[in-house]
Specification:
Shape: globular
Distance between the termini: 13 Å
Number of helices: 8
Largest sheet: none
Structural class: mainly alpha
Helix content: over 70%
Strand content: under 5%
Order of helices and strands: HHHHHHHH
């Protein structure tokens, strides 16, 4: 349904987004360090549940948009590239925070951990903008049902987000300890991520739809 090369490009964009500084990663790392892996995992389940809200909202919205404006892809193409450039700038801007620079949080119950994880993601404008600006570049109305294509992309992004964040939850303490004494590595991580996101933005902006 979605060409393999475009699906792989979408995976790269999703991977770049999940590693870019944002409330989800900040919350998961902080919670895992302060309250342990179990708390981090429960919070991650809440975050994943929040993705479902964005997936089905964006999929339904894009379906209506493509039906109303068949060439909506051209309108939104550069918005997606601009958004990736914005994420790149957030990563490298002076005074920007690394996702591995965490903050202290008081212990919470499992129910609250799940609820806060869900709300952190469901109310995260970064997630909503990602779907609405990036999805149209990979959805082909001529290749099948727009809603199903959008859901497939959303589930792909959700799987990537879950896998990466699970790895971070399980190793949060070790990662934080490593970066705490190596500020140069923190800056390097930010610049590498900014470069990857910037390159993806240029690639998407110049890509011609087949």
């Amino acid at each position: 349904m979605i060409p393999l090369n475009e699906w792989l490009l979408f995976c790269a964009a999703a991977f770049g987004m999940v590693l870019s500084p944002g409330p989800n990663m900040m919350y998961l790392l902080s919670r895992s360090i302060c309250q342990g892996r179990r708390a981090g995992f429960i919070s991650l389940l809440g975050v994943v549940s929040g993705w479902l809200v964005h997936i089905f909202s964006a999929s339904a919205g894009l379906t209506a948009l493509f039906l109303a404006v068949p060439f909506a892809y051209e309108v939104l193409k550069y918005a997606g590239a601009a958004y990736l450039l914005y994420l790149a700038w957030q990563a490298i801007r002076p005074g920007g925070a690394s996702p591995f620079a965490t903050r202290q949080l008081p212990p919470d119950s499992p129910a609250k951990l799940y609820r806060m994880g869900f709300l952190t993601n469901a109310l995260n404008p970064k997630a909503a903008v990602f779907y609405l600006s990036i999805f149209p570049q990979f959805v082909h109305p001529e290749s099948g049902h727009v809603f199903l294509q959008s859901v497939l992309l959303g589930l792909t992004q959700m799987a990537i987000s879950f896998t990466v964040n699970l790895g971070l939850v399980l190793t949060a303490g070790t990662i934080a300890a490593f970066f705490a004494t190596r500020p140069l590595w923190l800056r390097t991580q930010r610049w590498i991520m900014g470069g990857v996101l910037g390159a993806l933005a240029v690639r998407l902006a110049l890509d011609e739809r087949k």
